[in-house]
Amino acid sequence: MKHHGDAGMNAATIDLINGPMSRRWRRLGAPRRRGVVTLVLDLFSSIWFGVVLLVLLFVYCSIGSAVPAVRELPGLELTEFEWFHWWPFNVLILLLAITLVTVTIRRIPLRVVNAGVWMIHTGIVIMLAGSYYYFGTKVEGDAPVIRRHVRIELPGLAEPQKLPALPGGAARLAAGQGVWGFEIQSTNSNWPILSEDDKGKEAYAVNVLVTPPSGEQFIRQLLAGYPQYTEDILPGKGRAVKTTGKKLADENLRLSLELEPQETFHVMKSWALFIRKVGEREWTERPMPGMPRYHDRIGSRDQVFFDPHFPVDIRPMDLNVPPGDAPDALSEMSVHVTGFLRYAQMQQRWRDGGPALNPVLRITAQSAHADEQAYELVALDPVRRKVESGAVQFLWLNSAAEAESLSKQSQATLRVAVPDADVAFDLPLTQETVVGREGSFTPIEKSAFSYRVLHVMDDLAMPGGRRPISVAMVEIQTPEARFTRMVADEAEATRDIHGDADPHNPMARKAEQVDRRIQMTYHPRTAPVTFAAYPGGLYLAVNTPQTRMLGREVKVGESVEVIPGLSLRVDTLLQNGVLEEKPFVVPPRSRDRGVEENLSMIRLEVGSGSTVQTRWLRFNQYALPSEAYAYAGRLTYVPERFRLNDGTQVEVLFSRRRVRFRHPVAMEDFHLDTHVGGYTGSTSTIRNYVSRLRFLKDNQWTDPRPTAVNHPTEFGGYWFFQAMWDRPTPENPNGGMNYTGLGVGNRKGVYVQLAGCCLAVAGMLFAFYVKPLIKRRRKDLAAAKLSAAERDREPALQSARLIGESP
Question: d(Cα 402, Cα 532) in Å, to the nearest integer?
Fold first, then answer.
């Protein structure tokens, strides 16, 4: 028996080892070979891998939103939108979705009790897919929508023309045998109608100043929606109907107010070039992928002006900008961007080394009671040689010796001398002594001569780059004749002029030798402060009307007190000044972040063979059709022109990419919702502003749709909301409101995201509320079954006890 028992035990042991124990041993102690697919599935089934992905996503999102300096690094230059659509973000989202799907299938059995987790994970995956679709198709931008344009129809005009109804907009049109001029003089958003049929109503009014080829100007008043009330106003005479008996001064001219459809919007945070031949209306667009956005790129510091305390880093660039889908006027030329400035303004500055004499002086006024004020004076420029209403002037002299001959008083004087009579005196030229041709002659004592001063002319431009001269026209009566003397501040330019021609054009009359019996010298009015430069030096003279108060040489960098409390410092003196125009890079400390890209510039090179033209192009928020749309500086329009080898002129404009609407949009009217008392010129009196928009569908305008602040409207796959508006001024509360700025964007994938969110929320509700009920009910059922089984077993147990207790 023992032998058989041992044999049986050994057999059982062997069966156990070869059975479950063998399998467990292989699983725990003897590793088996696993395939690549299994390893990948195990990785994506790991909870820790999912946690790592979530942490990486959190860090990535935090950096993109809270630390923009990272995504704005020179190697990245990404906007926030681009950051959340960049490939690392997309990869993390994709890995998270795969992990959720794998974990759900492999680790969570598909049972009713686990339905909540399945719903949550499925909802998150749907949200991820919807977000990827949303950001992958998202387009945001804005567009100005002008309220009306003036339609112009004239006999002889090939086709009707239009002029945007923006104050200051103008156009000149050739029609028939002449040229007509049109200018939007003013607009009024709340013009009261006084006609009995519509009395009490208000309309949008536009006043157009019309300049016909011949005849008087007139103003045509147009009312939007009420063409029957169109009438003309004659300046200084009132309504035309009261003067001529007709409402219109020229009935052949037809002007009307029409809707101004906007067919495109400009994409936010994008770049594009727009090109067209001069004279054309439509722009051709060239996208500019690869453009920098936040950091300056220049090849040399000589290309710009900059603050010496904030030097610009040299980082060259050369970006080829090929034609877009459609050919343009520069298709045969090479177009490259060789510079980019994030925040700059065009400035003009003088430098020395020009080919011709052109003295330039820079000075700074210093006072204890006011901020420093810098001035630039150009000696040979009649306008720029003086500043502060002529109080300070700058002259150029041939030598230092001429400085002593400068006038020692600031008042203009005429030196008169008759040598034979031993008479000499200085005549101050004032309103009393300059009498003109209507005045009487003044006799010169002890002589037979008399005179009268006709007028004075200062700073007359001279040909050949010579410095300007000043003259006093004096009519002289001698015993033999009467003539006019042109007395110049340069003795060699003084002439006696005979004849009765216009004295305002003395150069056109016959000039003869000066009558030496009477001598005159003109000293024009001089500025109280005069800087006179000459080769190798600079002289400063400070005069009162009667005498010289200060006269001395000064040097560059020196400050001189001209009157108590006021000093002038000489900063720079250039002899051969050349005016340069270049961008000034505004230092970071002086930048306004709210300006965004509006002060950006690019350096554009257009070349053909060995000919290369370079221009700095300023950024335009919109690619406007013409200068007439550049309303009061609010809508910029600064294209640059390039001349091709064949003489063709091409306009190039730097702006943003455009997207065409499927349905053009127009503004019907604009409404301000104000507090009690109406608009007072203060923004605090405005509660809301509303644009009523129309959309062109099947060649028909829809009914107006209101778009208010925080209340967008949707049409044609785009949402429209208020982004800006033409604010009236406090001086003219009925003006403005000539255009509205609409924000535009699509929302593809939003409903997919919403469906995923709803499914995930439903799963959470199931997991937190339904699942505990199911588990509790199952537990109760199990307990009830166990109790029933125990009750069924109780009689059997009692019988067993009884049997066990019997002898």
Answer: 9
